[in-house]
Amino acid sequence: MKKVDKYKEITDTLERFAGTKGHKKVMNYIKEAIKSDYFQSEIGKLRKKYSIPANGFKSTDEHIEWNNIDTDKRISRFRAVSDDVWKLCAKINLHNFECFDLVESYLYFNNLLHYDKRPDFLNLCIISDTIDEIEDPLSKEQAEGDNRMFPIAIRISPYASLRNIQEYLEVAYATRIKPLQEKYKKKNALIGRIKSKNPLVAKRNDFIYKNKDLPRKKIKELVEEKFDISLEYEYIGKIISDEKKKRKIL
Q1: Please, are residues 28 and 115 in contact by the beta-carbon 8 Å criterion?
Q2: Tell me, what DSSP letter sits at residue 175?
Q3: Which of 123, 98, 103, 106 is nearest to 14 (CA)?
Q4: Residue 225: enclosing H or E segment and its boundaries?
Q5: What is the pLDDT, as a whole number, of residue 249?
Q6: Buried b / exposed e along 127-160 (16+ C-beta atoms within 10 A)
Q7: Alpha helices in 36-177 (DSSP H)
Q8: How many helices (H) and strands (E) does the chain have?
Q9: Are 86 and 100 a contacting pair, CB within 8 Å?
Q10: End-to-end CA distance of the chain
Q11: Residue 82 has pLDDT above 80, yes or no
Q12: What is the C-alpha separation between 198 and 208, in angstroms, rounded?
């Protein structure tokens, strides 16, 4: 009998989660939330508060040098930064436990270094052992994150087959599950409504938005120089207007 490699089995499962539409929906939201005016403003305040460069550290060496201070001060600062990152995750409707690494990474390095770390949690459903959680309660932060991201639970018997579960969901979704989803949806929430863009188009639109205060003629010239494409002034204005709306999502 072939021996089962549990580690490989878990890794393969995580990779499959990363390809699900639920994971993509959450990641699309996270990427847009991080571009929002609110998030950028809060990140700017935190960088100023903790003497982090305005655009984040350029290298891990810079980060190490920043951390090269008295041990007690370093521990105190670590706790303060962690607390502020927890709060910011909650403010932008992310799981403060599972999304901590993403926001911390952005704070320090201006990018999402760990965005694919837990595609099972960065998703629209979660699996939990309810009996184990009663016997060994989750931390307050973990529980708050779970309740915010996943307020609706389906409890499953250990004797239910895949077919039993699928059949139950098909029957219960319209009358039992969807009404609860509507109950807990936040007004104007954009999870699931943000579409993936071609990376080049997204990069172009970000560039245009960052230079939005320049004259349209200058923006047009810069776009032609950087992306080798020509855009009409009206279209540049539409891109700026659309990007402004998206960045007001919080």
Answers
A1: no
A2: I
A3: 123
A4: helix 216-227
A5: 59
A6: eeeeeeeeeeeeeeeeebbbebbbeeeeeeeeee
A7: 37-49, 60-66, 71-91, 100-109, 130-135, 140-149, 162-172
A8: 13, 0
A9: yes
A10: 54
A11: yes
A12: 15
